[in-house]
From TrEMBL:
UniProt protein name: Cobalt ABC transporter, ATPase
Matching InterPro entries: AAA+_ATPase, ABC_transporter-like_ATP-bd, ABC_transporter-like_CS, ABC_transpr_CbiO/EcfA_su, ECF_ABC_transporter_ATP-bd, EcfA_1, P-loop_NTPase
Compartments where located: Cell membrane
Entry keywords, A to Z: ATP-binding, Cell membrane, Membrane, Nucleotide-binding, Translocase, Transport
GO MF annotation terms: ATP binding; ATP hydrolysis activity; ATPase-coupled transmembrane transporter activity
Subunit-level organization: Forms a stable energy-coupling factor (ECF) transporter complex probably composed of 2 membrane-embedded substrate-binding proteins (S component), 2 ATP-binding proteins (A component) and 2 transmembrane proteins (T component). This complex interacts with a number of substrate-specific components, including FolT and ThiT for 5-formyltetrahydrofolate and thiamine respectively.
Native organism: Lacticaseibacillus paracasei subsp. paracasei Lpp122
PROSITE patterns: ABC_TRANSPORTER_1, ABC_TRANSPORTER_2
Lineage of origin: Bacteria, Bacillati, Bacillota, Bacilli, Lactobacillales
Length: 278
């Protein structure tokens, strides 16, 4: 598939800052891909997300989305292609009810009312929130609030969804709930997903991972390639997958462990096989 996003030599510096927030960042994203962008706090993840849809203007370099180069002339067309789900859903709510909130973006775009009603109903159904259409958003759980935020984006029918630390305020159950919705929507609608996160488990959902460090790309690779660095990720201010922590602990006790990355399921299979040969 072709590239839906192309970033070339992107640089950005915040006003009055002494150091660049992004330095010579270049990467492509294929249509339908799930790309995770990870890094420690302050590594430039959210700054990069905001440069992709014109919330921030690049200092230099180019950003292309769906074949359009980001500029003052194209920024609104690009924003129609890109939806962002932010960290705190309460900051995105504007409606008195769930349905009112989902319809808000469509009203701003002048979508005819019959089409609006159809899109709101479809979006709420897709995220499993139809029964909550008349509820106040403030009375929902964290996972439910993020589902509503996602519905508001899906109703606008973007090609790309950016999750900007969207699960960081949720408990593990809520996190899995939201990621499950995103997986289903991606497969059903053919969406491209960019996940801006410091959560290793969320990053493991991706096809590829960009590892950012102090505004620069440290590495681009598959989850297996990135996580194979194991405990070295701690030096970059990141967590390490549980399976890698367990491998390291077992290796320190003299048990022979493979160097390549294993998710939990593969590690269980390996340990079971190892146990059966002892």
């Amino acid at each position: 598939m072709g590239n839906v996003i192309r970033v070339q030599h992107l640089n950005y510096t915040y006003p009055e800052a002494k150091q660049q927030a992004l330095t010579d960042v270049s990467f492509d994203v294929s249509k339908g891909e799930w790309l995770a962008i990870i890094g420690h706090n302050g590594s430039g993840k959210s700054t990069l997300a905001k440069n992709l849809n014109g919330l921030l203007a690049p200092e230099s370099g180019t950003v292309q989305v769906a074949g359009m180069t980001l500029s003052e002339e194209t920024v609104w067309d690009i924003r129609a292609k890109v939806g962002i789900v932010f960290q705190n859903p309460d900051n995105q709510f504007v409606g008195a009810t769930v349905a009112d909130d989902v319809v808000f973006g469509l009203e701003n775009r002048g979508v005819p009312r019959p089409e609006m009603i159809k899109r709101v109903d479809e979006a709420l159904d897709r995220v499993g929130m139809t029964a909550f259409a008349d509820r106040e958003p403030a009375r929902l759980s964290g996972g439910q609030k993020q589902r509503v935020a996602i519905a508001g984006i899906v109703a606008q029918r973007p090609e790309i969804i950016i999750l900007d630390e969207s699960t960081s305020m949720l408990d593990p159950a809520g996190r899995q709930e939201v990621l499950g919705v995103i997986r289903e929507l991606k497969d059903e609608l053919g969406l491209t997903v960019l996940s801006i996160t410091h959560d290793i488990d969320e990053a493991a959902e991706a096809h590829r991972i960009i590892l950012l460090n102090d505004g620069k790309i440290n590495e681009i690779g598959t989850p297996s390639e990135i996580f194979s660095h194991g405990m070295e990720l701690l030096r970059l201010g990141l967590d390490v997958p549980y399976s890698e922590k367990l491998k390291d602990a077992l290796a320190q006790r003299g048990i022979a462990m493979p160097k390549d990355y294993m998710d939990n399921e593969r590690l269980v299979d390996y340990l079971w096989t190892l146990h059966s040969t002892m």
